[in-house]
């Protein structure tokens, strides 16, 4: 923690005042934007010294979040005095978070005492109870990285830590969307591929589909590609993967869409390692704004980790009892493990199949306590022809009933909206014709 004094100009002081004014008030929930701004945090050690149990609870919730999964967080009570005593005999971590409810003079005195024990490069975040610009100015002069006003929300703390270790001016890491079926053969890959293609076309942004069903994946077939290399090569040596090798292993399907194809060879065994999967996906998301994970219907350590670490999750199910049970299990796990994230999206596929008894969307919603994002009716002809042709539904027939539904799924998952031209009514046309004749 630096002791160099840096004078703030009037405009800096005004900016500090505005920043303090925007800090959430007591009891305020973290904003929707905080979910987007809190990005994954690298492997660092964080030690937190709290005064209030509510602060310790918020820190603990943040520590369990997927964005801090690589960090090591320890929480202590006692505030700044406990931190000063602790670091007289112990080395300081990458980041220290201190809560202090005292006034300005006492807080500054405790920070000065802490500075004598801090190692070079250690960052400090202060959680205070005084909303005062002069105090904020003094903290900045002492090299404090951030000042938050209690009570804090977990997402606000995560966003502050993220800003310290991720350049806010740099391009954000890509969003990861995980697609998984509640049961095998429910069409999760089809939903993933169509939504991904639509997203890349509609937003004119680069997107990579990672086909993680290495033995039986269909991404190559669905896009009419026969790649020689793919994701298996990356997973076998994740430490070698960089931008150059990634570009060589990807198969380009359109201007903005590339696929990390599965090898689909049964002579090989595919015992994937959790760290290898995480490393590969991290490299991909550093290079493209969108990554779609086509997860197979199996439950392993790596598939569970990728599902829990994704920014958005789409569950595809058909309307029967087994799918209802499995979807409930997946959703319950996601709710429990991803308390600071949005709820997963549920798509009911192949509904209204002739002569098949079905569980209604309303019953799914009541049992799962979640809204159904979309229903896609059974259409063997359209989907079968698209699959055989290696085309997406919107490519084959833009007027197909499923085409706008798949587009809505893509836009909803990406939190984007499309402006659609309103159709002119026949009445308006006739009125214009009458006016013209008159």
Q: Could you tell me the mean pLDDT?
A: 86
Assigned CATH architecture of the largest domain: 3-Layer(aba) Sandwich
Strand arrangement in the largest pleated sheet:
8-9-7-10-6-11-12-13
What percent of the residues sit in helical stretches (DSSP H or I)? Answer: 40-55%
The number of E-state strands comes to 13
> What's the main sheet like?
8 strands, mixed
* Low-pLDDT regions: 2-32, 421-427
Number of helices: 19
CATH fold-level name of the largest domain: Rossmann fold
The radius of gyration computed from the alpha-carbon positions, rounded to a whole number of angstroms, is 26 Å
What does the model show?
This protein is α/β, with parallel strands linked by helices and 438 residues long. It folds into two domains: 10-30 and 38-165, Rossmann fold (3-Layer(aba) Sandwich); 175-413, Rossmann fold (3-Layer(aba) Sandwich). It is built from 19 helices and 13 strands. Strands 8-9-7-10-6-11-12-13 form an eight-stranded mixed sheet, sandwiched between helices. A five-stranded parallel sheet has the order 2-1-3-4-5, sandwiched between helices. α3 packs across α7, α8 packs across α18 (402-413) and α12 runs parallel beside α13 (301-309). It is elongated, with a radius of gyration of 26 Å. The N and C termini lie far apart (82 Å).
């Amino acid at each position: 923690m630096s002791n160099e004094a840096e004078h703030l100009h009037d405009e800096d002081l005004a900016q500090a005042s505005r920043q303090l004014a925007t800090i959430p008030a007591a009891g305020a929930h973290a904003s929707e934007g905080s979910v987007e701004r809190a990005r994954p945090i690298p492997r660092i050690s964080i030690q937190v010294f709290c005064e209030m149990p509510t602060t310790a609870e918020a820190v603990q919730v943040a520590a369990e979040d997927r964005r801090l999964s690589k960090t090591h967080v320890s929480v202590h009570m006692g505030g700044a005095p406990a931190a000063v005593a602790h670091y007289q005999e112990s080395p300081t971590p990458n980041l220290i978070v201190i809560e202090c409810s005292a006034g300005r003079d006492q807080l500054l005195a405790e920070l000065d005492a802490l500075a004598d024990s801090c190692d070079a490069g250690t960052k400090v975040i202060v959680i205070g109870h005084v909303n005062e610009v002069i105090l904020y100015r003094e903290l900045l002069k002492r090299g404090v990285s951030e000042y938050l006003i209690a009570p804090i929300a977990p997402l606000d703390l995560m966003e502050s830590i993220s800003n310290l270790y991720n350049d806010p001016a740099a391009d954000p890491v890509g969003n990861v969307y995980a697609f998984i079926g509640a049961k095998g053969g429910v069409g999760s890959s089809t939903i993933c591929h169509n939504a991904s293609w639509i997203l890349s076309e509609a937003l004119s942004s680069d997107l990579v589909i990672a086909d993680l069903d290495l033995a039986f994946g269909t991404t190559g077939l669905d896009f009419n590609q026969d790649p020689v290399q793919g994701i298996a090569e990356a997973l076998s040596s994740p430490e070698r993967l960089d931008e150059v090798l990634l570009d060589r292993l990807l198969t380009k399907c359109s201007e903005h869409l590339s696929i990390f194809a599965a090898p689909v060879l049964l002579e090989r065994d595919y015992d994937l390692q959790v760290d290898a999967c995480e490393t590969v996906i991290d490299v991909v998301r550093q290079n493209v704004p969108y990554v779609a994970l086509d997860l197979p219907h199996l439950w392993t350590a790596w598939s569970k980790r990728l599902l829990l670490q994704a920014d958005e999750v789409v569950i595809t199910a058909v309307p029967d009892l087994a799918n209802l049970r499995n979807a409930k299990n997946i959703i319950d796990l996601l709710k429990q493990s991803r308390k600071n994230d949005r709820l997963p999206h549920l798509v009911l596929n192949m509904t209204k199949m002739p002569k098949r008894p079905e569980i209604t969307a309303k019953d799914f919603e009541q049992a799962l306590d979640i809204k159904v994002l979309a229903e896609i009716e059974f259409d063997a002809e359209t989907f079968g022809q698209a699959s055989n042709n290696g085309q997406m539904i919107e490519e084959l027939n833009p007027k197909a009933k499923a085409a706008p539904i798949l587009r809505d799924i893509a836009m909803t998952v990406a939190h984007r909206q499309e402006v659609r031209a309103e159709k002119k009514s026949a009445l308006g046309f006739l009125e214009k014709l009458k006016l013209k004749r008159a």
